[in-house]
Amino acid sequence: MTTHLTQETASPLHGLSRFKALNESFPHTAQILDYKRRGKKVFGWLCTYVPEEIIHATGALPIRIIGYSHEANLDDATAHLYVNNCTFSRSCLQLGLEGQYDFLDGVVGGSTCDGARRLFDIWRQYVGTPFHHVLTVPRKYTERAHQLYYHEVLAFKHHLEEYLGLKISDEALRHSTEVLNRSRQLLKRLYELRKREAPPISGAETMEVLNAAYRMPKELFNEWLTELLEELEESDRQFKGRARVMLNGSVLTNPQFIKSIEDQGALVVTDELCTSTRYWGDEVILDDGRPLLEAISRRYLNNFPCARMHPSDERFNRIIAFARAYRVDGVISQIVRYCVPYCHDLPLLTERLKEIGIPTLALDVEYGSSGSGQVATRVQAFLEMLEANRR
Question: What is the DSSP string of 110-123?
Fold first, then answer.
């Protein structure tokens, strides 16, 4: 087995420790509590198709609603969302029912999958956050689909303005777009470091940064990430492993799950998840002749696609491009049980990857899982196969 740096033996990073501390305190982070103390609004969003720029432009703090970052008792949520709903939606609901998201002034969702849509309905009925809005999200990229989604985004903007009693100016919206584009640029720089033969940051550590990205004010996140990037670029840290691996699949927020894979000797160098590349992958294109709100709506519909989008080729092509750019030996697909979109397209994606010589390991997991003995055994066997393929 190739000697590899572990998170326990790697030199500590000040910038990373701040992100970890913030994540450990979520959902009651100091930054969120400070917003509330100053009389400002905090809005939760449930899907990457919700345009954060519009929330940010009102002066409110947009944060992502997620569930526990570990396996937890979901009895209360299961009483409202039957057990064949994914554990991500039930975990989010469990936190809501427990009052962990009582600081929210509003919740915004998208009609992206049945689990997310039903979660929104139950949340509105039993958690009772004051403001609610759902955007209809088309499954295609046609011009008609773009027009439909633009009008959905426009309706969301009007609804939010009416609720808050204010008007979102073009200047505020442009400023918010520039702030969020800056976050996307910085995260891209972080991922560029992972293209190295021996990256200075592990996959699990990267997930800590990603989790913080939607749990704190973007301005502060940009400052912290800039400092961390400087620290990484000057660092002598070098992670090595038995094989370069890409993660893809359902929503994932638990760094310990990635660490459980890396503990077997895998070098997780990139991913395709709605909590990672599909969150920051594309910027809003400014000054291309389109009105700003239309540019924002086009960014969200054209962003790195979810498995719900049709046709699937756009998503598959992007995954293949990432796999090649990061020189991956294999792909590990973690699919949360009952996550229908990712279950259905896995055979197609597996075949596409096989055509370019990249094997896939499918792991059926529960949201929040930290890995298990069975996962470790399967990852070990997968890495042995990847090593044999290189001989």
Answer: E--SHHHHHHHHHH
